[in-house]
Specification:
single chain, 11 helices, about 220 residues, binds heme C, mainly alpha
Length: about 220
């Protein structure tokens, strides 16, 4: 009589077990690798209460970042502008626009617009914009070409290894103070020379010890 289950099937449970274990390891690896912040945060682009476009206001109209992010050179936080900054223009520009309804309401009711944060480090990490701007790191190095963004998204991982990559070798990311907010920056041929001068002049030494960023 032919065997219904050939002999090798005796080892089937073992194969299933090995296969399942491999599968679990694969799943764990998948989440550990692709679920790491390096992958999860890049591209994050939340909805905003107003369809404000950096591409229009910065790319086309040519506003400087510091017109709105006024504290970025002086404070840890870059801060998002108050409604009054928008109304400097929009009390006379596009006054009938439906897209600006929430802005006019915010002004009339004296209630700030509730922008959703795009970039957000965990609270146990210390970060300071002014230290980076004064040293000569341009906005573009950490936020990408914002002037081309219709809606802001996170361009860089903001992970610990990303911070450390630059802290270990800041020279390629340093620019003269006049180019801090320039987008699509084309460094001159003697960029490294300029950077070395900046590093000496300003005694630039980004922290790489734990307490530098975890205070
Ligand atoms: C006319 C005002 C204005 C100008 C000029 C402006 N921004 Fe903004 N920016 C805003 C507003 C409003 C928000 C909040 C809404 C949003 O995220 O789009 C914002 C958000 C951002 C964010 C995301 C903040 C977060 O929540 O993480 C970044 C990064 C940013 N701006 C960078 C820049 C850079 C770089 C420039 C210059 C190239 C610039 N901005 C010029 C008004 C401005
Ligand atoms: C320096 C002047 C200026 C400032 C400051 C400014 N805008 Fe504008 N904005 C403009 C101009 C010019 C247009 C184009 C108007 C048009 O297309 O008719 C525009 C267009 C817009 C539009 C699109 C309107 C539509 O109907 O298509 C929105 C939304 C907008 N701005 C939001 C904002 C917000 C929010 C702020 C503040 C963070 C702001 N703007 C600050 C000048 C400005
Ligand atoms: C060295 C990297 C780096 C540079 C350079 C940099 N940023 Fe940021 N930016 C960040 C990080 C990281 C955050 C998130 C901070 C947090 O969550 O505490 C952030 C947050 C922001 C925010 C949200 C508000 C805030 O402060 O949390 C705005 C707006 C912003 N940056 C604008 C700018 C502008 C404009 C420039 C250039 C003048 C600039 N940034 C340069 C890394 C950088
Ligand atoms: C593109 C380069 C670059 C990146 C990316 C970068 N940094 Fe820096 N960082 C610098 C430079 C340059 C300095 C200035 C060092 C100096 O002036 O001695 C600095 C200084 C600092 C300081 C010291 C500030 C002070 O007040 O003493 C801290 C803290 C810091 N960075 C945290 C971070 C964190 C956290 C991240 C990642 C979220 C980050 N940095 C990403 C280049 C960078
Ligand atoms: C240049 C800044 C910087 C330095 C220096 C630094 N860290 Fe971090 N660290 C960060 C940032 C940014 C994060 C948050 C990463 C994220 O959200 O993905 C972080 C996260 C962590 C975490 C949380 C783990 C995780 O994956 O979320 C631990 C633990 C940690 N750091 C330990 C250390 C130790 C230990 C040192 C010294 C050897 C150190 N850090 C030095 C910036 C730094």
């Amino acid at each position: 009589m032919a065997q219904i289950f050939p002999k090798w099937t005796n080892r089937l449970p073992l194969f299933i077990l090995i296969g399942a274990a491999g599968g679990i390891i694969g799943v764990v690896f998948f989440f550990w690798y692709f679920g790491s912040p390096q992958y999860t945060d890049v591209g994050y682009q939340p909805e905003q209460p107003v369809p404000y476009s950096h591409k229009l206001h910065v790319g086309d109209l040519g506003l400087d970042c510091r017109y709105c992010h006024v504290n970025v050179e002086r404070a840890a936080v870059a801060s998002v502008p108050p409604t009054q900054t928008c109304m400097n223009c929009h009390s006379s520009v596009a006054t009938e626009s439906r897209k600006l309804l929430p802005v006019r309401a915010s002004m009339a009711e004296n209630k700030p617009l509730e922008w959703t944060k795009v970039h957000d480090l965990p609270d146990f990490v210390y970060f300071d914009h002014s230290a980076h701007i004064t040293a000569g790191v341009g906005c573009e190095s950490c936020h990408g070409n914002v002037a081309a963004m219709e809606k802001v998204h996170q361009e860089k991982p903001l992970s610990m290894s990303w911070c450390l990559d630059c802290h270990n070798n800041p020279a390629p990311s340093l620019r003269p103070a006049s180019e801090i907010t320039t987008m699509n920056y084309q460094p001159p041929a003697n960029q490294l020379e300029i950077a070395m001068q900046l590093i000496q002049q300003k005694n630039i030494k980004p922290p790489i010890d734990c307490s530098g960023c975890h205070r």
